[in-house]
Amino acid sequence: METQNLDTIIESRGNDSSQLIGILQDIQAEYNHLPVSALMQVSETLKIPFSRLYSIATFFKAFSLEPRGRHIITVCMGTACHVRKAPRIVDEVCRSLGIKAGQTTADRLFTLETVNCLGTCALGPVMVIDGKYYGNVTVKTVGALLKKYEKI
Predict the structure, then answer these.
(1) What is the mean pLDDT of the chain?
(2) What's the predicted TM-score (pTM) here?
């Protein structure tokens, strides 16, 4: 891992331990996950115990210690989406990509996540890809959505 990039990220937040969440977000944005070596460097630089960093990195669902895909797919599994067949949407994404929820494809193109609620109940079932919301998703529309992002 290139430590110069990491130093720049930490310095951009003023080497301030009160900016820890922002630093971790910036690291994840840069590396697509939180490498353990990066956590160790942050620990040393900011004089924060590694155990504290690790507990923060594993507590928040937004952080990942494993490399994530270039495209993050999130499927809402809240009640409104669930009754509108969201589990079938998840099954179709899993079948199409050859992964399970919470996993990343071998080529690191896609990561599939599920969440309890996205707050867009009227649009259910809802799938989000890279922050773009798709409502009223069906098993038949999943393939076209995935193909669209394969090319990006």
Answers:
(1) 93
(2) 0.79
